[in-house]
Amino acid sequence: MQMKSLDQTIIGVLGIEFQETSDERVVATMPVNAKTHQPFGLLHGGASVVLAESVASIGTWNLIDQETELAAGLEINANHLRGKRDGIVTATGTPVHKGRTTMVWDIRITDEEEKLVCISRCTVAIMKKQ
């Protein structure tokens, strides 16, 4: 099983773009627009969760043996702290735990003024490819 092009996934649909991927940090941006709004014109909490899990999953994938392993979200929580109607949000993920079978990530989503929009924690499973 190979990883699909990110443009062919929900990452592409929502306009998520990865800015940085290292062993200690992953940074991605997402536009706040009609595609990421809930019906009342605010950033949808689910879109924030997609952004957070994407950062954690790509961060884990970057740290594993990509030939024999794959990464998939196992658990996620999110606290939505501030509404946002337009612009860009930036998710910065840092690993809290780098285990053999799971990794845990802290993800902070901020607006252009670096105000917190959402805080998330995501556990990612590391599985052997079949």
From TrEMBL:
GO terms for molecular function: 1,4-dihydroxy-2-naphthoyl-CoA thioesterase activity. Gene3D superfamilies: Hotdog Thioesterase. Residues 40-118 form the Thioesterase domain. It comes from the Bacteria. InterPro entries: HotDog_dom_sf, PAAI_dom, Thioestr_dom. Keywords: Hydrolase. The keyword Hydrolase applies. GO terms for cellular component: cytosol. Belongs to the thioesterase PaaI family. This is Esterase. The lineage of its organism: Bacteria, Bacillati, Bacillota, Bacilli, Bacillales.
